[in-house]
Design brief:
Shape: elongated
Strand content: 35-45%
Number of domains: 2
Radius of gyration: 27 Å
Strand order of the largest sheet: 10-9-11-12-15-19-20
Largest sheet: 7 strands, antiparallel
Distance between the termini: 76 Å
Amino acid sequence: MKRLNKIKFLMLLSIVLILAVGCDVPRWYCPPPCDDYDYEDYWAPPVPQNVHSVTGDGKIYIYWDPVRTCDLAGYRVWRSRTEHGYYYLIAETRSANYVDYDVVNGHTYYYAISAFDEWGNESELSDELVFDTPRPEGHSYRAYIVEEFPDDAGYDFSAESVVPYDCPCADIFFGYDDFDESYYIQACDENTDILIYGPTDDLTDVDWAPEDGWISGAKVNIYDGYSYLVWTRDNHFAHIRIKCLCGDYVVFDWAYQTDRGNPELSTPDGNKDKVALPKIFREHKVKVFGKEYKQENLSFN
């Protein structure tokens, strides 16, 4: 008898807890009445948080934290061309991420996310200012060292092409210094700047080009797994990541922002503030108009 009374007490306690908790909690805390289709809910789900984007080539990746509510039906993705403009509904998704392919490289897009439940209630739009400018990128490109193949040593970011090192269109060229026994990149003129960024795992490790640390007309030693940024003479930003120093050629990945003056190269965390340079673990030698400097003598962050 005591055991039966205990069971009845526990069942009664469970019902009280269910009624007290309500429906806007994670699914694993949602027995009836949340699964009762006759139940009506007039409360909107929480606003999605931590919305951020990642820049792609002809696409933008948008992520946010999943909303924990048992009656969640999905999310709506909203987009605008201006920060304070009208936001249009572009998609619905059940997952806490979305890839927008309907974008043009060099154009900026603004995003917001809302959540809606099974009863049609919808949250307010997310609070974060999330904007992104897609840009082209390339992987495993090959350029030769100027000392061996000068017609295949330069690179033109705007044309996405290897060009002769002395072509007026070239932004940088690659080479090998026998005296230093090191590979290098050389800015093609004094109006093109180079910045030593440091070791990276892939292109997305460099979000925005930093404000400081640029060297005009520089010749910079390069290393496997390191990233180098280029500020072109016509005010575009580019990123080169070295993948292989392979005898008489160099293999690299690249990203190039086609939007003039826009320093965005990739934004994995939505942080659009001034970017600080990472710690650089290897000494770089830099030559500017024939004069040699060491990395620590230059005005890096």
